[in-house]
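Workshop exercise sheet. Pairs work together: one partner reads the sequence aloud, the other fills in the structure field after running the prediction. Swap roles for the next sheet.
Pair: D.N. / O.F.
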Amino acid sequence: MYQSARPVERALLSLFLLAAALTVTGCSSFGRKFNQALPDFLRSDPGAEELERYQKRVRVLNRSEAEREQAKLAFDEAQAYHDAGEFKQAATALDAYLEAYPDTVDDKRARYLLIDSYMQLEEGSDARDAIKDFVAYYPISDFNDRIEEVTWTLAHEFLDGKHDFLFFSKEGDGIAMLRLVTTSFPNGIHADEAQWQLANFYFDERNYVEAMSAYAAIVERYPRSAWASRALYNQALCHRALAKGRVYDEVNMRKGVELFRQYLDRYPEGDRRAEAQEGIDFLTGLQAWKQVEVARWYLGQDQPLAARFFLLRCTKRWAGTEAAAEAEVMLADLPDVSEDAFFEELEGEIVDPERNEIPIDSGSTRPRSDGP
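Structure field:
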């Protein structure tokens, strides 16, 4: 009885905690999909959030002259705190002002002053949230350059551990701020370097798929960037890292060779030319060995004709490699490696018109299909 009751108790406890969270935060903040998944007695009105925004907008539009004067006085007071260097009082006053008087003529400046106040107070998390709010409200504004600069600064404060608490790292916030620079200020002065640092972070984490995408963004969006040449080289390095070995798919091998060659063609003075050539040699070697491994598999299946095809392919396309030398040895061990014998063997696979059957291998046949 006790054991069977435990799941029920846990479910009730979870439901209680969920209800408490909804009471504190408001159900609408969880989003439409989550709201629809709730039981009926916990589900909020699906239009409540939209209605609240509409009502706020109506209040703003219907603001009286007296209310506008009150809003102006509240902003002037908050700005005076900021100008006097009393950033704690400024942050409190600005936060209250934005809550009480949204969407005023001073809204953008108030939000910027709030960010600056938090930065002066070294309140990294509050500054982060204020920056995100500003960008969400005003994707383009006269403050763009200043917001980009403070976002860049805060990103590196997080990455340098300035805002870490005990053993809790804020590195993730730094990465998020760099990403915000690249998405919100793609034409800013720090955009290409932020993209470069993001790509390097993914590369160091061995997240090569994300790193490839980030490096590619530099090559495509910022071809004149100081990081463009290294981004192209590192993009090729990602494909090399993803090329796991000779028995795996050739896609990363081919793409890596292609990008290394692009690097050599575009940047004759590049500082990684020797390494790029080594990367080409390594990946082409893998491709060559891939043909040998496929040939060995076919030989194991007693299909020497198919094996011969891949061995000949290796010797023709990757001549001079160790794999090509191995392929030559293997071809010599086959009954006949001449071109004439190759086509004679193919002719032996032609349908026997008398028996209406296709020979499969020695001693076995299958009916010919009526299809093409």
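Discussion prompt: Residues 1-5, 21-30, 351-372 have pLDDT under 50 and may be disordered. What would you look at next?
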